[in-house]
Every structure is written in structure tokens, then in C-alpha cells.
């Protein structure tokens, strides 16, 4: 029996969430007609239809879904059939009120929205697996079903529940982790501090609201548990589906985006056949194209190749303080940027804009206005674009640089009572990612313990506050064996339990970096310090500084003023064949770019392609050709050196290709 679970659709898949149950059945025929006009090849169905599929416990109503799937198949449109478990129906909570979640303050939440369930509830798990099993048995062989969609956005609204059921599940998880050894837990958590020592497992509770700062390791293990608890629900549903349809791929939509950090997707990624992501722009981000690129590269790295964009928006969303529409051409640039960074499927929330409900003001492929709209015309054009890019499917990214990304380190860094409450993991990573992205350098993301670092010319560690001994040794070996390693401030400070690594900072990286810090000097919001040395005139830094002494490294830049004037701020440690850099502060944007370009140059990193400022350059490598994506975010247009065929227009190009103002060009370059 085959286990090659790939999406059985040609080219780049195109579509969105389809909720026909919200509309009279006479609308459905118009839906599929317009889907064909737009070039839609797959839609996700059933995501929030539990109440209609199972109107009473154990009673199933399939006739509506039968008709929907038959209609899609008759029109050549594939179905990504969802288990509707993100929104249990009202009858479930009437029968099982204990399945409702409890927040940190001890308040029991009420039904009336989505994802209002406790992830540890046995009643919820039984009900979720029952509906998943019923759908699997009914539709395993339906010709429309090309992929299973497990749940929807795990952890979006219930990443943690603090009820007694969750407390018991947490204790079970802890006993497994610590080998049923309570002394081991007490040591790991440092419970001798503040008289927190535990003498029995049932004394341990979730980190509920308390009068002062909760135990950091307690909180860290709680974050790990919550991610694992939701993952166990996901894999349980996946197994039910896989038993019924072993060849049909299963996915669930991740939320790799700036605002979500609840789940350790390195642990989740191996459990899915196809990795999918939901990504939305934030209205307060003036350079949202960088967020698209960064998170697209992270998704490609999690997947080890192409992935699927399950949701983004044609225009405004409905859940931000101000929900702005996209500018002309922005939706197309967004979608094709996702393709550039590895997406082999592009989908939106949702197909038809809802006229009622909490998301009635969320944009859609078919807006309230209907087809006489700019959005609809853009949707049809994008369908044509994706058809023209069909051959790009299955090609992958090209990277000479790796950035270390770790959810444990992110969680630990952002716990309360740090030396500075201004540290934001994703912002620190983005600071380092941006200059290389602007320069057209291909980037992968890796775990700190990745055994294959030698395949990269440069490994960047913008922020790795928490690190295991093995992972730290792995990064050090990389530099000592000839690689170029660059490490950001406040990295290597604590072990996997959050315990400070004694003997001086930056802890685990002191030796490989050739520095020792004896005191931290975080800067106040708005405070800056000057930098001098091998940096541009007028260079400054903010957020962080440290009192460093050199133990093998050389100073590249020093503080020009303040309490650390004359002491190193940026250092370089030359090993026999490799190099390790340390940035002990956050340089201003231009200075950081200058430093990272120098580090890259010395490491032998080259840009994928030369293009004018404002043109994003991304390369996907295929077996027979490379695909050069050129995206104009500046709105000025450009002539870019290229030879091959521009796929969006089908035009041969010799010497240069024209990127229209605010537009995109994709050039096939033969090997």
C-alpha cells in the first residue's frame, strides 16, 4: 500500500475556504461556475460545520455534504475536507459543560464562538474522534476528496486551559518527562527558591494567576505541555483519517506569523503529510512584505521543501483594531511572494464573503459587491498567474545562510523578569533577516541542534537565550570546523531548564566567541549609545549593552559613550579555519546591515541575483530549471538582468527582464 501522500492536483493549487452551508443551495451552482472562471482547483470544506454534520450526539446528517462534494467533483474542483472539530456544537457543551476551558484567572469560559474547549477534556477527545471517524468512513473514497484538513488553527484561541482536568494532564506529562522522579522536577524547576518545593505530584498546578512572578521553568514546561497536548489531538485525528484513507494526505493549518507563538512547530512538522500555513498582514507593519518572506522561508524550512498557503486575505481582515484594505497590486504581490518562498498552493479565507457572523467584514475572493469589483478581477488574474507558474511546483529554495530558530528559546526569552522586558524574539530575528533579504540572499531556518549546518556558508543566531549543551556544542563545532557563526546578545544564557550558565556570559558560547561578560547593561526605551570602530560614522545602538572583556576575540566596534565607553560591542574570534562573531548590542538598522554584509562577504555568501533596491529577489531551484522571482515592492518598476522565459507573460527575455511598477516577473532559467 502506498504511503506517498502527495496532493493529487496539477500545478499550483488555488482556492480558499468554502462555506456553502451559510448560503441557500441555489447559490452553490453560481459558486462553482465562478470558481471555474477564477481558475480555482481546490477548496476547503466543512471546517466549521460540526453542528450541521452531527445535529445530536451520535446522529449524523450527511446529505448536505454529499451534495457539496458531488457538485465540486462534477466541476473538476478538489476538496480539502476538514474535520470540523475547531467549533463543537451547542449540544456538546450542554451535555459536557466540564469541557469548557478555564482561563488563568479561574474563569470558566462559555460557548458562543470557536475553540472554546479544553484540549485535555476526555469528552472533547471522544467527540472529536467520533466525528472525524464518521467523516473518514463516509468520504474516504469520494473522488472529490484530495486532502484531509485536520481541525483548524490549533491553539488560536485555546492554546492553554487552566482547569483541574488540564492540571491532571499536566502532571501526567511531567511524570513522563521526569521519569516519575519528583526530585528531578524540583531540581529542574529550582523549587528551593521561594519555598516552592513539591513533596507530592498532586501539589503541582498549572501556572495560574498568582501574586508575583511565577516560576520560570514551571511556565516553560507548561508551554511545552500545552503544545504537546494539542499535538496529541491532531495526531489522534490524523490516525483516524489515515486508517480510512491511507493514501490521502493530511494537513492542518499552522499559524507561522508574527502574532502567534503557542506551538513548537518543529515538533509538529513531522506529523503531517503536507505542511500548511495561515498568514495575515498586520496593519501596523509598514514593511509587511518582509514578514511574508521570513515566515515563508520558515515554513519552507519546516517542510523541508514546498508547502501550502491555506489562508491569507484578498483585502481587509476583521480582527485588528483597524482593518485596512490592500493597495492596488498588493494582493497579487503577496500571493506570488508566498509562491516565491516555497508555496505550492495558494488559498484564501474565504471564497464568498459572509453576510452574517463574526467574520462578515473579512475580505473574500468573491466580495459582497460580487464580480463587479476590483477584488474579483484580481482574483481571476491571480488564477491565470498560477496556471502560468504550474511548472514551478516541486522546486525548492536555494540558501547559503541559515538562521537558528527555536520555540523553546522564544518562550523562555519572553517570560517575565528578564533583564529587559523589551526583548521580542521575532523582532530580533527579523532585524537580522531583513538586510540579507534586501540583498537577495537565500535563507533557511534551522534548529540549533541541526546536524547538517556544514551545508551553509554562514549560520546566524540572532537570539538563542535558552540552549541545550548538545545544541551549543553543535554550533561551536560548526565555527571551529570552518564555518562562519554570528551570535546575538543574550544568547546561550540558560540551559533547557532555564538555569543560568554560571561563570560569565554569554554562557554556552563564551569559548567559541572568545569573550566574557561580567555584567549586563540593558538600555531604557529610547536610550541610545554611540558606536565607534569598524562601523559607519554616526553608528548607534539601543536596547542592550554588556561589559565585555576579550578572551581570544578582537573588537570590531566599541561603545563610544556611556558607562561602557571604550569597551567592545561587536567582536570577531578567528578559529583555525572558522570565525565566530558576537554582537553584544542592537546596532541601528544601517549599521547592522553593514556588519551583516561584511560577515556574509567574509563567509563567501553571494546574492542570488543583482537587482535594484526595492526589488525582492528569490530563487526556486528545480530539476531542469531555476525560477527567478522578481517582486517590486517600491512601485517604481525596473529592468533586471535575466535570460530565459518570463512565465507570467510567456515572453522570452534576453539580457534583461522588465518588472512593471508594483508588479512581478518570474523568469525560467535553464540549467
From TrEMBL:
Reaction equations catalysed: Hydrolysis of terminal non-reducing beta-D-galactose residues in beta-D-galactosides
Keyword tags: Glycosidase, Hydrolase
Organism in which the protein naturally occurs: Streptomyces cellulosae
Protein name according to UniProt: Beta-galactosidase
Similarity comment: family membership: Belongs to the glycosyl hydrolase 42 family.
UniProt cross-references to Gene3D superfamilies, sorted A to Z: 3.40.50.880, Glycosidases, Golgi alpha-mannosidase II
EC number(s) given by UniProt: 3.2.1.23
PANTHER family given in the database record: BETA-GALACTOSIDASE GANA
Domain (Glycoside hydrolase family 42 N-terminal): residue spans on this chain: 17-388
InterPro entries: Beta_galactosidase_C, Beta_galactosidase_Trimer, Class_I_gatase-like, GH, Glyco_hydro_42, Glyco_hydro_42_N, Glyco_hydro_b
